């Protein structure tokens, strides 16, 4: 992802690279930048984002692992500093954002839903950030209806519950990223599947996010906030 960002920044005359950092670099090097992009690992992402926010720099976060408790901590830091905004984008793919929006729309019609996410074996975190966000949005859409029905979740093979939704993570060669949200109803199931077949799927969302991040105030989560979802002809 870091390399993809570097290429897109290089290709766009609106941007100039201040520094491209890895785990071996000093985080102080972000000071002086107009914008920080964080695409690292969940374990270090909060520290990087807080450092940038406290240095007065807007941040675009693509790293996974930003569940609601983490976002709540970040909102506190951003409010305390009263400075730049942070845009957290769990998935830069437009198709993935649409699939999550469709799942959120379906959430109130079904009591049972489970998520199966499959990624390449190099992915260190599970469940995926997209699955966490999807589960949280489904739960939020059902707030007055209560948790989803998920029997026997005390058994490990029933997955990890995120906001009451069981999530199952697969790591397999031959796959970039895939998510299936399966709703179970009376005499029917509804499956919403999104496949990312190459990182090219992230390019449009990255460009939109880069253009928007310096105008964001507070903590904004999701590419859906930047896209005209639901607008006729969108
Ligand atoms: N939002 C989205 O649409 C997408 C998000 N992602 C997420 O983006 C993140 C990165 O994914 P990906 O590029 O595939 O992962 P990689 O493992 O290929 O890259 C991780 C990067 O983080 C760097 N890093 C690790 N630790 C530190 C540290 N302490 N300080 C600074 N940099 C560090 C690594 O540097 P080094 O090389 O030195 O180890 C490396 O450059 C993941 O969380 C992934 O889930 C991925 C795809 C799409
Ligand atoms: O690590 C990945 O590859 C991806 N990570 C993000 C996630 O955790 O949801 C986005 C996408 O699924 C690819």
UniProtKB/TrEMBL annotation:
Group of enzyme by EC: oxidoreductase
Pathway as given in its UniProt record: Amino-acid biosynthesis; L-lysine biosynthesis via DAP pathway; (S)-tetrahydrodipicolinate from L-aspartate: step 4/4
Pfam families, sorted: DapB_C (PF05173), DapB_N (PF01113)
Keyword annotations: Amino-acid biosynthesis, Cytoplasm, Diaminopimelate biosynthesis, Lysine biosynthesis, NAD, NADP, Oxidoreductase
Domain named Dihydrodipicolinate reductase C-terminal: residues: 96-227
Entry's family note: Belongs to the DapB family.
Protein name per UniProt: 4-hydroxy-tetrahydrodipicolinate reductase
Gene: dapB
């Amino acid at each position: 992802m870091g390399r993809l960002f570097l290429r897109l920044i290089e290709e766009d005359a609106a941007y100039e690279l201040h520094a491209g950092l890895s785990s071996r670099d000093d985080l102080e090097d972000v000071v002086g930048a107009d914008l920080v992009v964080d695409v690292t690992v969940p374990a270090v992402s909060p520290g990087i984002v807080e450092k940038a926010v406290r240095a007065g720099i807007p941040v675009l976060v693509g790293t996974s692992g930003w569940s609601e408790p983490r976002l709540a901590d970040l909102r506190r830091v951003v409010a305390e500093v009263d400075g730049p905004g942070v845009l957290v984008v769990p998935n830069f793919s437009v198709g993935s954002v649409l699939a999550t929006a469709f799942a959120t729309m379906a959430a109130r019609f079904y009591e049972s839903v489970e998520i199966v996410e499959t990624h390449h074996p190099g992915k260190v975190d599970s469940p995926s950030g997209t699955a966490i966000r999807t589960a949280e949005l489904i739960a939020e859409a059902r707030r007055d209806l209560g948790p989803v029905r998920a029997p026997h979740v005390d058994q490990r093979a029933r997955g990890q519950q995120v906001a009451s939704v069981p999530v199952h993570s697969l790591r397999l060669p031959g796959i970039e990223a895939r998510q299936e949200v399966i709703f179970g109803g009376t005499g029917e199931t509804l499956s919403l599947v999104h496949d990312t077949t190459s990182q090219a799927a992230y390019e449009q969302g990255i460009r939109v996010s880069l253009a928007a991040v310096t105008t964001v105030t507070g903590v904004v989560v999701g590419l859906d906030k930047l896209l005209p979802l639901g607008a006729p002809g969108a």
